[in-house]
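[agent] plan:
  1. take the single chain provided in the ticket
  2. run structure prediction with default settings
  3. attach structure tokens to the ticket
  4. add a short note for the reviewer (M.T.)
[agent] executing step 1
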Amino acid sequence: MSNVSTILSQLASEVGALLSDYSELDYVYDVEKNTFRTGQRRYGIGVEGGLSVDGTIKSITIDQTFFIKLTDCTANRSSDSSERVAISSLYDDFETIQKNIFQKKLGIPSVVLVVSELDMESPEKVGDNTIMLKGNFIIKHRNQTT
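[agent] step 2 finished; step 3 output follows
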């Protein structure tokens, strides 16, 4: 299994265990394709580009961007109070995830060297009643060449 596959698998495991009341998104890269129901909380994990960086001899060291998307459905009401509550809750849940990921290196220190550069994007509406929060971070990982 490649490093990227290993990292994605471990991320899914970690997030699934930490946020047991969430289910996985069917479409991670195009979130609007998902069907959402009120009260449903979901997550998605993905990978973006990477860049090789200086490392040790006989290995390739890569800084690669991974992301986690959290969504929550809100009820349409006469104010945005349910949206504000959902956003606050998503940030709380993301903090739980980030503490685990940054401190434990996903539990695979032989592959993951460091997790860094958390970038939280602004919450956005997906459809009429779904809020999404996306966090990007860099995972420095190493592939042995011999």
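[agent] step 4 note for reviewer: The first helix runs from residue 3 to 18.
[agent] ticket updated
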